[in-house]
């Protein structure tokens, strides 16, 4: 407890702007009670010990933040805490980052019926709701709080309002200013130990296979040629590409030119994509449920074509109704493989998932933690969630990111094997 000093707040991500008339407001169904005491109120699910401790922490702090590993039930913790304080509130607002998280929050709040006089609104941050009269603001995926779209809502809060945050990954890898802002905003932090949750049987172990497919640097010359052309155009040919003493801003431009042309070579790598298709077919045929994470819709469409008949693409532009159908089909086992963009990074609650394939690459430890967490929820006789990743030796920057992910897997305590 107290403001943590070590780990780093992840980059806030604002959803696309909607029209001014659009709003996503989900009033939570109320259940009538004969006894208004929160301690005697009937609720529809029991909390685990670590959830109870986290709930009690929130209830005892006006400003508080619970750091809960993916799959440990942070939404349930928040809903139970809202129930406990509901008799002294008139209005509570629950903010979520996606429509799917909005639905999850509504379902959790229904499990913990509140004081029938309490007005509870579950809102998507894209709607930019008016929170000026809220007695309680809950920020689900609260690591986004420093982002402009979230910070503006925080500034509306009236003095004395309760502010709670929930997230598996609050700290940003490098941006210490954002971490400081988050720490000052929420003041008090309670972290649930992932190892303790695993030992209690409420999270699965993680196994990571890292596939080494490429020849060292086989794409680097082509990437560098394209990047050099961009660099020359952007700097007006005033600097030499190979100069070791470039000013810092010019060095940044050089790195961005390299990175701009790296992802296409990674995503279009025929050996890599063939291995992904092979893994999907093998795992799905064995009865596993597979999530393939991609960095772009184009890559997702390409992989779905390779992974027929297993792959089904899910992303923000297909619409909420179709996403719900695909997610429910995955939950029921009617389909075996989802190919998903960053939409699945947070809040995708499908305990049946047992395999995740990191076709997306990247280096963010916070995103990595969220992504592998998709397959660590217990389900049936599942005891291990398996992740497939790639070394990407063919491209220097992608390879550096792959080794960063490798180190992160080890730090998270997963069994990692290069194959």
Question: Quick recap of the structure?
Answer:
This protein has 419 residues and is an alpha/beta fold.
Q: Overall 3D geometry? A: globular
Uncertain ranges: 1-26, 30-42
Helix content: 25-40%
The profile of the biggest β sheet is: 7 strands, mixed
Strand content: 15-25%
Structural class comes to alpha/beta
What's the helix-strand series?
EHEHEHEEHEHEHEHHHEHEHEEHEHE
Termini, distance in Å? Answer: 41 Å
Number of helices: 13
How are the strands of the biggest sheet laid out side by side? Answer: 1-4-3-5-6-2-7
Radius of gyration: 23 Å
Can you give the mean pLDDT?
A: 87
Compute the number of strand runs.
14
Describe this structure in words.
With 419 residues, the protein is of the alpha/beta class. 38% of the residues lie in helices and 16% in strands. It contains 13 helices and 14 strands. Strands 1-4-3-5-6-2-7 form a 7-stranded mixed beta sheet, with helices on both faces. Strand 10 (311-314), helix 11 and strand 11 (337-340) form a beta-alpha-beta unit. Helix 1 crosses helix 2 and helix 2 packs across helix 3. The radius of gyration is 23 Å and the shape is globular. Residues 1-26 and 30-42 have low confidence and may be disordered.
């Amino acid at each position: 407890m107290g403001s943590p000093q070590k780990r780093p707040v992840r980059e806030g991500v604002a959803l696309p702007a909607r029209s001014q008339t659009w709003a996503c407001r989900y009033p939570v169904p109320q259940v009538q009670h004969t006894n208004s005491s929160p301690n005697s109120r009937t609720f529809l699910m029991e909390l685990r010990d670590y959830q109870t401790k986290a709930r009690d922490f929130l209830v005892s702090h006006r400003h508080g933040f619970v750091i809960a590993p993916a799959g440990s039930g942070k939404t349930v913790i928040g809903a139970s805490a809202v129930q406990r304080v509901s008799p002294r509130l008139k209005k509570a607002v629950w903010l979520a980052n996606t429509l799917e998280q909005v639905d999850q929050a509504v379902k959790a709040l229904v499990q913990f019926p509140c004081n029938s006089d309490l007005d509870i609104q579950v809102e998507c941050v894209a709607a930019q709701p008016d929170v000026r009269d809220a007695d309680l603001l809950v920020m689900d995926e609260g690591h986004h709080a420093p982002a402009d779209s979230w910070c503006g809502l925080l500034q509306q809060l009236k003095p004395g309002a309760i502010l709670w945050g929930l997230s598996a990954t609050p700290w940003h890898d490098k941006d210490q200013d954002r971490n400081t802002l988050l720490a000052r905003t929420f003041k008090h932090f309670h972290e649930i130990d992932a190892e303790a949750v695993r030992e209690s049987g409420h999270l699965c172990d993680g196994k990571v296979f890292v596939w080494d497919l490429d020849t060292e640097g086989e794409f680097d010359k082509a990437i560098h040629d394209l990047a050099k052309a961009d660099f020359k155009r952007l700097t007006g040919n005033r600097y030499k590409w190979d100069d070791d003493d470039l000013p810092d801003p010019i060095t940044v431009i050089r790195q961005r030119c390299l990175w701009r042309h790296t992802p296409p070579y990674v995503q279009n790598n025929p050996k890599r994509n063939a291995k992904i298709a092979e893994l999907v077919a093998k795992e799905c045929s064995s009865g596993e449920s597979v999530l393939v994470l991609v960095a772009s819709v184009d890559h997702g469409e390409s992989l779905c074509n390779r992974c027929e008949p297993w792959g089904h693409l899910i992303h923000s532009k297909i619409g909420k109704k179709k996403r719900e159908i695909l997610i429910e089909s995955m939950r029921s086992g009617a389909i075996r493989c989802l190919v998903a963009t960053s939409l699945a990074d947070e809040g995708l609650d499908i305990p049946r998932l047992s395999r995740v394939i990191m076709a997306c690459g990247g280096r963010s430890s916070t995103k990595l933690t969220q992504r592998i967490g998709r397959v660590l929820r217990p389900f049936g006789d599942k005891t291990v969630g398996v992740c497939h990743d790639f070394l990407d030796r063919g491209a220097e920057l992608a390879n550096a990111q792959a080794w960063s992910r490798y180190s992160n897997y080890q730090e998270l305590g997963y069994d990692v094997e290069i194959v």
